[in-house]
Specification:
The structure is a single chain. This protein is an alpha+beta fold. The chain folds into two domains: 348 residues, Outer membrane efflux proteins (OEP) (Up-down Bundle), CATH 1.20.1600; 69 residues. A four-stranded antiparallel sheet has the order 1-2-3-4, with no helix packed on it. The protein is elongated and about 135 Å long.
Length: 440
């Protein structure tokens, strides 16, 4: 009995799919709407823009206006039972304008904020790329887990059919007790494998649900006929592309520039500053809020501040900024090394998967023919039940290996596109076309 026949028998054991299953694009849209990490990365760009605006505002005119309206009630006893009451209303108006004329610290703080804004924007792109990769990786990890559970249940059902036959034959003394023990032992192994496969499926489903915020009713399966082609080109060229256009590396490089600028910001605190000050003051309130004739004061000044000694605060701030710069460089180096490893591994694993698929297809053909021969031999009494179980196990293993190789190809190919910084929604549409469609 071939795997196809087992599949028909075990159909009742598999998870029931709804008429309309979720495809990759549906899961992607759910993740896009629900994933808090990508949303936070997008919000972070708003923080960068706000910080840049704050830094720019420090260089623009600072205008302040204040006003005071008051009344002072003065009561004086002039005779017993007689009070003299006087009210003294008063007003004060103050208007000031301050404009930086020379402040290198403020200028470089604005430059740093600009670089930080660019860094956050690039990190948001990387967060989106990571989301697209996670959708594909978790989607096909769930399909793989479902297939492993399916194969475990199907093989278990087929083995139970053989057990029923052996039990009938043993009752008629047509088979050995060792055959009965052998098939029961295999059933125990399959029961354990089914528990492990179910655990993997639940874990994979939980990971996918964590990304989308909901539990998918079912997922569209992978089509049978897909052209699994190798990634062309030289690996060294792909590595150079990854280093030049991967947004994670770009974000770390922008962080280095921002840290270098921050060092300059701290150094600028040693430099003198100058600003223009214009003030206008008008009041008719005198001493103890008594009323007097109005007067006004107009002031125009240029203030120069030369920092001489701050107790070592500025020097230590420069030292801190330099340490932060070195940390940024270390983070960049770690990211570059990680991307190089990721690109190389994904490239080689994708191409290896194409060979694994071809080898697994041939192995499946061979094991299917071997199983058919074993079934005939067992009916004729020339092979043992152990040989038949082994042939059956080989066929299921070949089917499982083929399915895993296909999933590995897709996940590694998307991982490669992510590593070189070229992953896009077009890749998701391409992969989605490899799925079966469920008609309602």
């Amino acid at each position: 009995m071939t795997l196809f026949k087992y599949g028909l028998l075990s159909l009742a054991l598999t998870c029931a799919f709804t008429a309309q299953a979720d495809d990759l694009l549906v899961i992607y849209q759910q993740a896009l709407d629900a994933d808090p990490k990508s949303r936070s990365a997008a919000e972070k760009t708003g923080i960068g823009t706000a910080q840049k605006g704050q830094a720019l505002g420090q260089m623009l005119p600072q205008i302040a206006f204040s006003a005071n309206w008051s009344t002072n009630r003065f009561t004086q006893t002039v005779a017993k039972g007689s009070d003299q009451i006087q009210n003294y209303p008063g007003t004060r108006y103050y208007l000031s304008l301050s404009q930086s004329l020379m402040d290198f610290g403020k200028f470089w703080a604005w430059r740093q904020a600009t670089k930080v804004e660019d860094q956050y924007a690039t990190e948001a792109i990387e967060a989106h790329n990571q989301l697209m990769f996670d959708v594909v990786d978790l989607y096909f990890s769930e399909l793989q887990a479902e297939d492993e559970l399916y194969f475990a249940k199907t093989e278990k059902l087929a083995t139970q059919k053989h057990l029923e036959q052996i039990q009938k034959q043993y009752a008629k003394q047509l088979s050995k007790i060792t055959d009965l023990y052998a098939i029961k032992a295999r059933l125990d192994q399959l029961a354990a494998a089914e528990i492990v496969a179910e655990s993997k499926r639940v874990t994979a489903l939980a990971s996918l649900s964590e990304l989308t915020g909901s539990v998918p009713a079912s997922l569209n399966k992978l089509r049978t006929q897909i052209d699994y082609v190798e990634i062309q080109g030289n690996l060294q060229q792909w590595l150079e592309m990854a280093q030049s256009q991967n947004p994670a590396i770009s974000a770390r490089q922008k962080a280095i520039i921002a840290s270098e600028t921050y060092v300059t910001v701290q150094k600028a605190k040693h430099l003198p500053t100058a600003d223009l000050q214009l003030n206008y003051y008008n009041t008719n309130t005198g001493y103890q809020s008594s009323t007097q004739l109005p007067y006004e004061v107009q002031t125009a000044a240029i203030n120069v501040n030369v920092p001489l000694f701050s107790g070592g605060i500025t020097a230590n701030q420069v030292s801190e900024a330099r340490y932060r710069l070195q940390i940024s460089k270390n983070d960049n180096e770690a990211t570059v090394r990680s991307i190089i490893k990721e690109t190389s591994d994904a490239f080689l694993s994708t191409n290896a998967a194409t060979h694994s698929i071809k080898a697994s297809q041939k192995a499946l053909e061979s094991t299917s023919k071997s199983l058919e021969a074993m079934e005939k031999g067992y009916r004729l009494g020339v092979v043992t039940i152990s040989d038949l179980i082994k042939a059956q196990q080989d066929e299921f293993s070949a089917n499982k290996d083929l399915a895993i190789a296909k999933y590995n190809y897709i996940k590694n190919r998307i991982r490669f596109m992510h590593a070189i910084g070229s992953i896009s929604e077009e890749n998701l549409h391409e992969v989605n076309n490899w799925l079966e469609t469920k008609n309602p």
